[in-house]
Design brief:
Number of helices: 8
Radius of gyration: 20 Å
Largest sheet: 4 strands, antiparallel
Helix content: 25-40%
Length: 263
DNA sequence: TTGCATGTTCCGGA
DNA sequence: GTCCGGAACATGCA
């Protein structure tokens, strides 16, 4: 699940329930998600601190406090939930930040990523500086430069978090399908009309997804048909959708709307 | 039992 | 240096 829109949703959860509140205690239920700290270290660093207004860069949620910053990455299966007191536990709860009337729980089945603790500016920078311009902050000019200067395949380029931060597999397929561009076209070989469509559709997909806290599954979107690909009809033209591995990721596209040859 | 999954990182090779 | 594919990570499901 977690791509930029999802992480924006988790940021809202942290903002609504955590900002300005004191962390009474940190419960680490599975230290397999701690990347550069220990249960004791995390507890010592954060207990007694107050959460500030959280931030986000790409798929990283930045949990600022009066002191250190806790950085959360959700991998493919992570979530952040607000659980009032007495709420039942879940087998995939990994870390819980206890506040006075409930707790914020980091839940993650696969533990592909996890939590990091940044105790100073340099540690925070180390993570943030690896990220490219956040997709939501990208201007037309930013994307223009990125595309014209790179000979890489679009799918791979847009998946690269150091190039554009926040886009994930589902979002990228959706954007490329709406812009009618074949996923492995070389970025620098796109025409100006195609670059313009890419920017417009990136903006539209994010604009509709961010308030929803996920890339929504609509019948008129590729998302509504992709689970049944290959073979499911393209919501736009009815041709059979294709599903192939491109740029190292499973990719769904419409051979009719997104022809491999320049169009 | 096998293959696949919406993420990232590391490695070898072109 | 750039780019690509493949494997690895941990877990559940069809």
């Amino acid at each position: 699940m977690p791509e930029l829109p999802d992480v924006e949703g988790f940021r809202r959860v942290l903002s609504e329930h955590g900002a300005g509140r004191r962390i009474e205690r940190v419960r680490v239920l599975d230290d397999g998600v701690l990347r550069d700290t220990t249960p004791q270290g995390l507890g010592r660093a954060l207990s007694g601190q107050r959460f500030g207004e959280p931030g986000r860069v790409g798929k990283w949620l930045l949990g600022y406090t009066d002191g250190p910053t806790v950085l959360l990455h959700f991998g493919m299966t992570g979530q952040l939930l607000w659980c009032p007191q007495q709420a039942e536990g879940h087998r995939h709860d990994r870390v819980a930040f206890q506040l006075d009337d409930g707790e914020l729980r980091y839940r993650d089945m696969r533990k592909l990523q996890g939590l990091r603790l940044a105790t100073d500016e340099a540690a925070l920078r180390a993570v943030v500086d690896d990220q490219g311009r956040d997709a939501l902050a990208m201007t037309r000019d930013d994307l223009e430069k990125l595309l014209t200067r790179s000979g890489r395949q679009l799918k791979a380029l847009l998946s690269d978090q150091s190039a554009v931060a926040g886009l994930g597999n589902i979002t990228i397929d959706e954007i490329l399908w709406r812009a009618r561009v074949f996923p492995i076209r070389k970025a620098s070989e796109l025409g100006s009309g195609e670059r313009e469509r890419l920017f417009a559709e990136m903006w539209r997909v994010l604009d509709e997804s961010v308030p929803a806290g996920q890339v929504p599954s609509y019948a008129s979107w590729l998302t509504g048909a992709r689970d049944d690909a290959p073979g499911a009809p393209c919501p736009r033209c009815g041709a059979a959708l294709a599903k192939e591995r491109m740029g190292g990721r499973s990719t769904v596209y419409c051979p009719q709307c997104q022809p491999a040859a320049c169009g």
